[in-house]
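sorry for the late reply, my laptop died twice this morning and i had to redo everyting from scratch. anyway the thing you sent over, i finally got around to it. pasting the sequence first so we're on the same page, its 240 residues, then the predicted structure underneath. double check i copied it right bc i was rushing
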Amino acid sequence: MILLGFAAWYSGSALLCWIGLPAYFLLQRDRDKRRVTCRGLVHRCMRVFHAYLNSFRLLRFNINCFPGPLPEGPCVIIANHPTLIDVTALLSLYPGLCCVAKSELFRNPLVGRVVRTCDYISSQRGGPMSGASVVLSGLDRLRRGEKVMIFPEGTRSPLQGLHPFQRGAFEMAVRADVPVVCFWIRCTPRTLHPDLPLLSSRWGASTYTVDQLPVAEPSSWCGDAKAMARDVQAQYDALP
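ok and here's the structure:
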């Protein structure tokens, strides 16, 4: 059933890519309006996806259990990254987010057009300028008044503990002088993790929760992104 859910998600994305969006582009030439509409569609699709997982007891996650409001105006949203569906979970809770996506997704024939129309931020693996590129792209979105979502570990969290937080998310916040909204994601028992078999999830066994933590303001660290990353990670490390 989990595989069916992912298959349905990719199939729906393919239909949107090759039929829905091209038809919409004929009617709407404004790129900003295209971006807003496409992100709204993604938000609704993610809600349907998670409602499906919850309905069939594949993962207990209540998308109507709102973790908390976001600040008005631009902000950086961070979270730990324990499962394969953390991006989809946060996109299902908050509409209009700009997220960081792997560069391969921009070229993917099934979802590439959606990712490009949403104007997400491309993250390239490796290379000395890959992190700087993400920071500069994030700054551009923040200055446009958007909310940027990024996982500071840069990859899925290990089965125990967290990877060291990278500085990029905090560098964006410091340079743009915007708050960092922190979320703590838990999946108990762990499932949908690269180090676990995809089909290891038992029927209705795992509970997925998203909790909002105190907002971090760059001014509290006098604009020191490195210290901010270190102290925010310490707060995460202290959580059960």
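Helices lie at 2-27, 31-55, 86-93, 103-107, 112-117, 130-143, 168-176, 225-237.
thats about all i looked at so far, will dig more tmrw
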